[in-house]
Structures are given as C-alpha cells and as structure tokens.
Amino acid sequence: MNETSSTEPQNYKVLLVEDHPMFREHLGMLIKRELGMSVCAETDNIQDAIILIQQHTPDIAIVDITLRGSSGLELIKNLRAQELDIKILVLSMHDEDLYAERALRAGAMGYISKNEASKEVIRAIRSVLEGQVYVSQQLNAKILTRITQKNSPKHLAGLETLADRELEVFQMLGRGKSTKEIAKTLFLGESTVETYRARIKDKLQLRSAAELYLRAGEWVRDHGA
Question: For 21-59, how does the pLDDT look when each residue is reduced to its tens digit (9 = 90+)?
Fold first, then answer.
C-alpha cells in the first residue's frame, strides 16, 4: 500500500491569468524556482481561466486587472458567484488606491503591484496560500487613513464613485475606443455603453463627450490604466 508521507512538502498548483506574454513567462519562471509551487496552466482571458480552473483545480490564481477582452475584477466576481474553491491574488500595474479595495471586495485575498521586487511577490503568494490577506504596508496605511479620516486620495478625483463596469468603460474610452468597440469587447449593447458613458459624465461632473475623452485619456496616460 502506497501512502503519501505527511512530511512531503505541499505542491501548490498556480494558475496565471495575465495578458502580457513576456510578464507571464517571467512570473512562471519565478514560481517554478520556488520549492512547493508549480504553474499548472496559464491564460490571458476569463473564459479560458474558468475552464482551466475546473480542469486543473489550482490552489491559487494570480490575476491581472487588465485581461484580453475584459477585466480581472469580472473574473474574480465570476469565480465567487460559481463558488469555485480557489484563492486569488491580484498582481497588476494599476493604481492600488483605486483597484485594491475593489479587488478585495470582489473576493481576492491579496493585491500587489508589478513594481514590487520578486521576493515580495513570492511572499504575497505564500501569504495568500496560507489563508492570509495580503496588501502592501503603504496600502494598508492608506486604507486605515481613509477609514479614519473618511476621505480619498486627491488624484482619484471622483473615480472612486464609479462602479467597476463604469471604470472599465472609462479606461477603454481613455484608450481611444469607440462605443461600438467597447460594446463588442465587453459583450454589451451599444445603448448600454452609452448609458455607462452618461453615468460616468454625471458622476465626474463633466459637461461633454469631449471632456470625458480628455479626462479618460489623461488618466490612462498618467496611470498606465
């Protein structure tokens, strides 16, 4: 009778959901060097991610905010809605002031910037695998300050009032996408996208479509969104 020894190290299976092939390759090499971790699959979109999770049952998914055709936030919500048993760490270039709390509310257990050193990324992965919530010290301090002082960073200037889908449309507008292109990418009707645009203009107190495109373009340029 063959039994697995209780002293054998745990081999955690990691799924990579990242739309930049070069960064995905770098991250995969980083994880493969770690004892007790292996990359079981990788993809750049939500649809394949869900299929791969069902096929490989990974212990953790490392998810970027920007994915091919949609948002990592939508993937996180989808996984939680389907009650799939997987831990999620968001690894992204996006502004953590704006996205980290959204990701945690959606169901992620951690958020870390791609600007962090490799050893910190590994520490974040291990923390989440151990069932701990991971955020940077800087972000933790900002969250506590925001809670106690009940205010938001000035550079967000109203963007925190946007719903997740509205923020996604705002970013795509900033990348120069038309209503038709946004509708096709997000699988929405053009009238629905126009409704989102109107809501964004209202929330940001913008007077015209030109102001909306200008504001969105400035945000994408300044924050790499």
Answer: 999 999 999 999 998 999 999 999 999 999 999 999 999
Give the Cα separation of 115 and 28 in Å (integer).
Answer: 16
Q: Tell me yes or no: is domain 154-223 CATH 1.10.10.10.
A: yes
User: CB neighbours of 3 closer than 8 A, spacing ≥ 6?
Assistant: none
C-alpha distances in Å from residue 13, one per residue of 42, 65, 129, 147, 183: 11, 21, 10, 36, 35
Give the CATH number of domain 12-145: 3.40.50.2300
Cβ(197)–Cβ(209) under 8 Å?
Answer: yes
> CA-to-CA distance for 214 and 126, rounded, in angstroms?
41
| Cα 80 from Cα 107, distance rounded (Å) | 7
Q: What is the pLDDT of residues 63-77, one digit of tens each?
A: 999 888 788 999 999
